[in-house]
Design brief:
This protein is an alpha/beta fold. It contains eleven helices and 14 strands. The strands form four sheets. It has a six-stranded parallel β-sheet, sandwiched between helices. A three-stranded parallel β-sheet has the order 6-8-12. Helix 4 packs parallel to helix 5 and helix 6 runs parallel beside helix 8. The longest helix is centred in the N-terminal third of the chain and has 21 residues. The two termini are 37 Å apart. Bound molecules: serine (SER).
């Protein structure tokens, strides 16, 4: 029987992944935790307010709930991390090391930790970016994710910890808000259009980035975590792709339903971050190892969000 702890459960990915894990393992076997107080979206779960930087408190939660798997989602994202690089590094690294070390000592069955397209940088070939390629991240978030990938691979090789990871593209969902990423514009624009407000995009109109609709991100995560151990050939982090689009292409997709949407472009410091990331991702290894296949296209995502977001606003 599995007992799962989700760290960072109140965040954009956490709220949705916690629900999905509840459906899979039943809610009483999933403990939600976050440094912030309980997100109302997690009302059906038992909740622990927890600072993952506190290794002792983390160990106590794991022990008292007989946790067998940890999903560690807490992190400071790319744009927010640039405001305080030292703090972003400290949080992103120490929290991962606390989780990996606990997994080793307590012999947890599995650990999940997300990486990101932010591990790539300006010298990485930007189109159809391969699993194994040049990596020269230039945000602290990206540097911490790249180092984190190496730590995951190290704990697997050296100690046999079954830690698995995905390099998520920008994640777009309607049930929860992102916090501090370079891809957040692609969520904000849907809120603006439904409030009948104009949108100012902080990236330029032709900036292509890899993106993924949240149901596909949840599916990829659960597929990876349920795959037999011998199928997992990548122990750093897997490339996964949904689709790629520019702000202009997203606007065109939304305008099929809301022709009145008005957008202007005022690129800020996040433009430079976006320019250093790939335009599109090659995820052949994930397809080969655990049959990864996304379900959504840009237009089917747009339609789904426009239909469902009003219930969450
Ligand atoms: N969506 C994240 C960000 O923009 C990328 O991992 O920071």
């Amino acid at each position: 029987m599995e007992k799962i702890l989700v760290i960072g459960a109140g965040g954009q990915l956490g709220t949705e992944l916690t629900s999905a894990l509840g459906e899979l393992f039943s809610n009483e076997n999933v403990i939600a935790s976050d440094i912030s107080k309980q997100n109302p979206a997690l009302a059906d779960f038992s909740f622990q307010q927890l600072d993952v930087m506190d290794a002792k408190a983390l160990a106590e939660v794991v022990e008292s709930n007989q946790i067998t798997q940890i999903y560690h989602l807490a992190a400071i994202l790319s744009a927010k991390g640039e405001a305080n690089p030292q703090q972003a590094w400290h949080l992103n690294m120490t929290s991962l090391l606390n989780v990996l070390e606990l997994a080793r000592v307590k012999q947890l069955r599995k650990v999940y930790w997300p990486s990101s397209i932010a591990v790539f940088g300006p010298s990485t070939p930007a189109d159809n970016t391969l699993q194994d390629t040049v990596m020269d991240p230039n945000t602290i978030y990206g540097i911490s994710k790249q180092a984190g990938e190496r730590w995951c691979a190290y704990y697997h090789t050296k100690y046999g910890v079954d830690v698995r990871s995905l390099r998520y593209p920008g994640l777009i969902g309607y049930k929860s808000l992102p916090g501090g990423g370079t891809t957040d514009y692609a969520v904000e624009i849907f809120h603006k259009v439904l409030k009948k407000e104009d949108f100012t995009c902080f990236l330029s109109e032709n900036t292509a980035l890899p993106m993924m609709y949240m149901p596909d991100a949840i599916k990829a995560t659960l597929n990876l975590m349920q795959a037999p151990e011998e199928k997992i050939s990548v122990r750093s982090s897997y490339n996964v792709a949904g689709f790629s689009f520019t702000p202009k292409e997203l606007v065109a997709s939304i305008q099929k339903f809301h022709p009145d949407l008005k957008v202007d472009y005022a690129p800020d410091f996040r433009q430079q971050i976006a320019d250093s990331w790939p335009n599109s991702i090659n995820d052949d290894q994930a397809k080969k190892d655990w049959n990864w296949q996304p379900d959504f296209t840009l237009d089917t995502m747009t339609q789904d969000i426009l239909e469902n977001l009003p219930d969450y606003m």
